[in-house]
Write a structure and sequence with these properties.
This protein is an alpha+beta fold. Helices cover 36% and strands 10% of the residues. It folds into three domains: 161 residues, no CATH class; 264 residues, Nucleotidyltransferase, domain 5 (2-Layer Sandwich); 100 residues, no CATH class. The protein is globular and about 95 Å long. It binds zinc ion (ZN).
Length: 680
C-alpha cells in the first residue's frame, strides 16, 4: 500500500491531520523530546539552579531538570573559565555557574531578527509579506518574541530576568512552566543560530501516521476483515484500542474526519447504498477483474517454481516443482523514512534537549528497493552492487522517483541478478503506482487520432516535451514552459502479429503522413468507415455498441487494449517477466513488512537533522532486517496469494490468513471453515 506514498497527489495529502498534534501539549507530558538530536547527560543542569534563583519566589514553579542545551557551542567558551566570564561575548555568567544568560544587546538583536522573520518586510519597503509559517511554528516564534520583549523592555516587570520572562510569556498564552522552558530553549537556540527555528515535528508528515508500514498493514488487515462493516467510526475506535495504541505508540485519538481521510488513502471509498459505509478497494469490479484474469494467471506460471519457506525458523519446504528453472521473485517498493519519526514510547528520554530545525530540512528520505525471500535485499553477494535507490523528496531535493528512474533501476537490478545468480529465472513484482505503469510516449492510443488523413501540408503526431538527448532534461522556453515537439506514434499490430505502420510508407504520395482512423480500420478489414462518425458525443457510447464510432472500434482492438508499460518493455527486452500487483492488495507485497521491521529499528536511533545521519541510520536499519523474518513475511503474503487462488474475496482472505498463521497454504477445508465462521 505504500506504493501510494509517492502516488498520492499533494492536494490529497495536504491538510491531513497528524495523529499527534504538537501545538497543544497541555501538560508536563509534552513530547518535546521529539525534536531532540543528542542523547545527553541527564544529571542536574546548572542553569536550573541558576534560574530558580533568578525567577524569584513568586515564579518559582520551575520544575525538574531541564537540560535544554546540547553539549556543543552555547557555553563551551565559558565552561571552566568562570574567571573570564565577564568577558564572555554572549552575556553574563553567574559565579560558580557555567551557564550564561544572554546579554541585553544579544537578546535585542535576536528580537529584531525574530520580528523580521514573523513579518518579513516587502522588497519595496512597504508592508509585509506572509512568511508562510505553519501554526505550530508561528505560535512558538510568537512565544519567543514575547519572551524577548519581556526580557528586554526596560519597563517590563521581568526585565533582564531570563526564566521569569519566559514564564510571563508562557502564562500570557495560558500555559505553564513547561511551555516556558520550551520557549527558553528555542530562544537560546535561535540566539546561537538564526537558522534554527521551531519546527512542527509532524509538519512534514504529509501522509500522517500512515507512513508507518506496520501500522498501515495492521489497519488494512483489520478493515479487510470487517468487510462490509467498514466505517470511519470503526477505524477511529480501532485506533483508540489499548493494544493498538501501545503496539504503535499512538498517543492521541484521531477524529472521525481524519479516519475518513485515512480510509480514502487506503483505498476505501464511500459506497452509495448506505451512507457511512465504505467499500473495500479489494472488491472493486476492475480490481477483482485484474486480480482474477491478469494477476493470478501470471502468478500461477511461477508459484510452483519458487522455494517455500515455512515454520517459525523459516526452513525450506520441499514441495512439488513444476518443470522449468527455479524462479526467484523480487518484490519492489518504495518507502519514506522521516527524520522526525521518533514517536515510540520509551525510546527517548523526556529530558533530551531540543534541536529544532527548519521545516523540510533533511526531513525525509525515500528508498526504493527489491527483496526476495531466497536472497534478501537485492545486492551482489560481495555487497558491492545494489539496485537500491535513495532520494530526498521535497523542494530543491531530488524529487520523487520518475518512471525513468524506475526503468533505470529495473535495468540495474536485472543486470545484477544475471551476473550474480545466472542459474535462476528472475521475476520482478511491482505495485500499481502510476510511475510503474507509465507507457512509452509513442504508445498506441486512439484517444486523439483524427478520423481522416490530415490535409495537404499538415500531419498528426503526439505532442511531447522536448528533451536534451543526453541528459533527458526538458528543454524550456524563455518563459519557463517546456518546449514541445511532435513525434510519430509507434506501429500498431495486425491480428497476425505483423506491424501496421500508422503513417504512409515511402513512395506513397502522402509518405510520412498519418493515415487516419478510417484507413487504419480499413486495413484491418473494416469497410465503409467513412460513413461511421469519428466519435460518439463525449465518447459516451451506448454500452455494448461495439461499432458505433471509429474511436470505439479502435479502442476495442487487442493491440490498442494491451499497450505494454515502459517497465514491461524494458524487462521484456532483457528477457525478464514483470508482474504488477492488483491495486489495494498491499498484503501481497511482503516488502511492506520488511520496511515496517526496518523502521522499528530505525526509530531507536537518536534523531538527527543531518541528512547523512538520516541516510546512514535508515540504511543500517534496512541491513538489520533478518533473512528469517523476511521469509516469514514472504510466507504470509503467499498465504494471501493462495487464498485468492482459491477464489476467496478480500475479507475471507484476511480472515483465513489470520486463521492459518504459520502455514503457506490454507486448509483444504477452508470453504467450510469460512461458512462455519460466517465470513462471506
Ligand atoms: Zn461510440
Amino acid at each position: 500500500m505504500n506504493s501510494d506514498i509517492p502516488d498520492i497527489p499533494e492536494a490529497q495529502v495536504q491538510g491531513l491531520e497528524p495523529i499527534f498534534q504538537c501545538n497543544d501539549y497541555p501538560s508536563s507530558h509534552a513530547p518535546e523530546h521529539h525534536f531532540s538530536e543528542f542523547q545527553v547527560n541527564t544529571g542536574p543542569d546548572p542553569e536550573d539552579l541558576l534560574e530558580d534563583i533568578e525567577s524569584h519566589s513568586n515564579l518559582s514553579d520551575i520544575e525538574e531538570s531541564d537540560n535544554e542545551e546540547d553539549n556543543q557551542g552555547w557555553y563551551s567558551d565559558v565552561e571552566g573559565n568562570s574567571d573570564r566570564a565577564e568577558e564572555a561575548p554572549m552575556g553574563r555568567v553567574y559565579p560558580g555557574k557555567e551557564r550564561e544568560i544572554p546579554s541585553q544587546a544579544v537578546a535585542k538583536q535576536a528580537l529584531d531578527d525574530l520580528k523580521k522573520l514573523l513579518n518579513p518586510p516587502r522588497k519595496t519597503g512597504y508592508g509585509h509579506v506572509d512568511p508562510q509559517l505553519d501554526s505550530f511554528v508561528r505560535s512558538h516564534m510568537e512565544g519567543m518574541q514575547m519572551m524577548l520583549n519581556f526580557y528586554t523592555h526596560a519597563k517590563s516587570s521581568t526585565y533582564d530576568a531570563w526564566a521569569a520572562s519566559s514564564l510571563q510569556a508562557s502564562m500570557a498564552d495560558g500555559n505553564g512552566s513547561n511551555c516556558a522552558r520550551r520557549i527558553r530553549r528555542l530562544t537560546r537556540q535561535f540566539i546561537k543560530d538564526r537558522t534554527v527555528l521551531p519546527v512542527n515535528p509532524y509538519g512534514s508528515w504529509n501522509e500522517s501516521m500512515l507512513v508507518d508500514e506496520d501500522l498501515r498493514n495492521d489497519i488494512s488487515l483489520y478493515l479487510q476483515e470487517i468487510g462490509k462493516e467498514i466505517s470511519a467510526k470503526k477505524l477511529m475506535e480501532y485506533l483508540s484500542r489499548e493494544d493498538v495504541c501501545s503496539k504503535h505508540g499512538i498517543e492521541k485519538k484521531i477524529s472521525e474526519r481524519t479516519a475518513q481521510r485515512y480510509l480514502n488513502i487506503l483505498g476505501y471509498r464511500w459506497s452509495t447504498p448506505k451512507k457511512g459505509q465504505y467499500a473495500d478497494g479489494h472488491e472493486r469490479d476492475d480490481v477483482v477483474f485484474y486480480r482474477e484474469k491478469v494477476f493470478l494467471p501470471q502468478w500461477r506460471q511461477i508459484q510452483n517454481r519458487m522455494e517455500c519457506w515455512i515454520g517459525s525458523d523459516a526452513r525450506l519446504e520441499q514441495g512439488p516443482k513444476m518443470p522449468g528453472s527455479h524462479v526467484i521473485v523480487w518484490f519492489h517498493d518504495e518507502s519514506i523514512f522521516y527524520a522526525h519519526d521518533r514517536r515510540k514510547k520509551g525510546w527517548y528520554h523526556k529530558d533530551e534537549p531540543a534541536k529544532p530545525y527548519r521545516k523540510g530540512e533533511g526531513a525525509s528520505l525515500m528508498i526504493a528497493d527489491f527483496v526476495s525471500a531466497d536472497i534478501g535485499w537485492l545486492r551482489s553477494p560481495d555487497g558491492k552492487q545494489s539496485a537500491r535507490r535513495v532520494m530526498k523528496p521535497g523542494k530543491a531535493k531530488d524529487g520523487y522517483f520518475t518512471s525513468d528512474d524506475i526503468k533505470l533501476q529495473a535495468e540495474e537490478a536485472i543486470r545484477i541478478c544475471k551476473e550474480c545468480w545466472p542459474q535462476y529465472e528472475h521475476v520482478f513484482i511491482y505495485d500499481n503506482a502510476t510511475t510503474h505503469l507509465k507507457r512509452p510516449e509513442d504508445s498506441l492510443s486512439a484517444r486523439r487520432m483524427p478520423k481522416n488523413t490530415p490535409k495537404e501540408g499538415s500531419n498528426w503526431g503526439i505532442e511531447v516535451t522536448k528533451r536534451n538527448p543526453l541528459t533527458l532534461k526538458p528543454i524550456c522556453n524563455p518563459d519557463g514552459s517546456h518546449q514541445k515537439v511532435k513525434i510519430r506514434m509507434g506501429d500498431a499490430q495486425f491480428a497476425d502479429g505483423t506491424p501496421q505502420p500508422l503513417y504512409f510508407p515511402e513512395g506513397h504520395t502522402r509518405a510520412g503522413v498519418f493515415k487516419g482512423m478510417v484507413t487504419i480500420l480499413k486495413e484491418r478489414g473494416f469497410q465503409n468507415m467513412a460513413k461511421v462518425r469519428a466519435e460518439c458525443k463525449g465518447f459516451k457510447c451506448i454500452p455494448g455498441a461495439a461499432n458505433c464510432c471509429c474511436r470505439r472500434i479502435l479502442y476495442g482492438q487487442p493491440d490498442f487494449t494491451d499497450v505494454p508499460t515502459l517497465l514491461e518493455l524494458t524487462c521484456k527486452t532483457l528477457g525478464v517477466l514483470v508482474i504488477f500487483l492488483p491495486k489495494f492488495h498491499c498484503e501481497l507485497n511482503f516488502i511492506e513488512q520488511c520496511w515496517g521491521f526496518a523502521k522499528r529499528i530505525y526509530r531507536l536511533n537518536p534523531e538527527s537533522s543531518r541528512e547523512d545521519q538520516l541516510e546512514k541510520n535508515a540504511l543500517n536499519a534496512l541491513e538489520a532486517v533478518p533473512l528469517t523474518s523476511m521469509r516469514k513475511f514472504a510466507t504470509r503474503s503467499r498465504r494471501f496469494m493462495d487464498a485468492y487462488e482459491q477464489g476467496l474475496n478480500g475479507r475471507q482472505a484476511a480472515w483465513a490468513a489470520r486463521k492459518y498463521r504459520g502455514h503457506r497454504t490454507l486448509s483444504v477445508t477452508i470453504m467450510k471453515d469460512l461458512e462455519t465462521a460466517g465470513i462471506v
